[in-house]
Design brief:
Layout: E1 6-7, E2 13-14, E3 25-30, H1 33-44, E4 48-52, E5 55-59, E6 65-70, E7 91-93, H2 97-107, E8 110-111, E9 121-125, E10 131-135
Parallel strand pairs: 3-6, 7-10
Antiparallel strand pairs: 1-2, 4-5, 5-6, 8-9, 9-10
Length: 138
């Protein structure tokens, strides 16, 4: 298998076709799309591309996006254990873990009580309770 090959379930390999499938972005369920849009827009320097009362889309023309969708009965993940597992999380890069964590906490994040490897990365929770990680390697 070459570096640019993908192993498929049958065990065969195929080279990815450029342009056939592209990553567009990721959407997160939440109770308050405006609050999460403000948090991630400020943290990542992304403008609001579109919004309604129930939806916020962050991103730039031709780039990837983050979307936030209002769910009336939204329940935040109870990571690392509990009744509501995390469904996804973002990996964000920072130059310095302590400074990056302080900045994001100042925007509304909270540090997760359990930190698996705090010298390598930190787990934070966004204002809706979604876990995300920061590291100097991302």
């Amino acid at each position: 298998m070459t570096e640019n090959s993908i192993e498929v379930a049958s065990g065969a390999t195929s080279a990815p076709e450029v342009g056939k499938v592209r990553y567009g972005g990721v959407g997160f369920d939440c109770a308050d799309p405006a609050e999460l849009g403000r948090f991630y827009g400020t943290a990542l320097g992304l403008p609001v591309a579109a919004s309604t009362d129930d939806f916020v889309l962050l991103g730039r023309e031709g780039g990837t996006y983050l979307a936030f969708v209002r769910i009336d009965d939204y329940r935040p993940p109870t990571w690392p254990e509990g009744a509501v597992p995390k469904q996804a999380h973002l990996e964000l890069g920072v130059d310095d873990l302590d400074e990056g964590q302080a900045y994001l906490v100042g925007l509304g994040a909270t540090a997760a009580p359990w930190q698996p490897e705090p010298d390598r990365w930190r787990v934070l929770l966004d204002p809706a309770g979604h876990p995300f990680c920061i590291s100097t390697r991302a």
